[in-house]
Amino acid sequence: VQSNNINNLNLEKKFLQNFRFLKNLNLAQNSIASIEPDCFLDLSHLENLSLEYNKLERLLAFTFKGLIKLAKLNLSNNKISHIDPNAFFDLVSLKYLYFNSNKISLS
What we know:
Shape: globular
Distance between the termini: 36 Å
């Protein structure tokens, strides 16, 4: 679903529910500005999620809830400046997190 001008992953939640056994999801190069909590809840078999080159600014609590098999998450080249402490809840299998070229500040 790369390069399709998707801008919000709340409306697409119903669409994603149809792919419960999906292992790879590429949502790179869209216009995604927000991801609603529990959006990926039904994708418990997902192993790779690509969200690079979007317009994400914040990661809310439970953004990735349910992704218990996710091993690789790419959030590079967004505008992320805020991450809720519970944003990565359930990512117990995560091995690779790509986060370069965002707007995180440690100050």
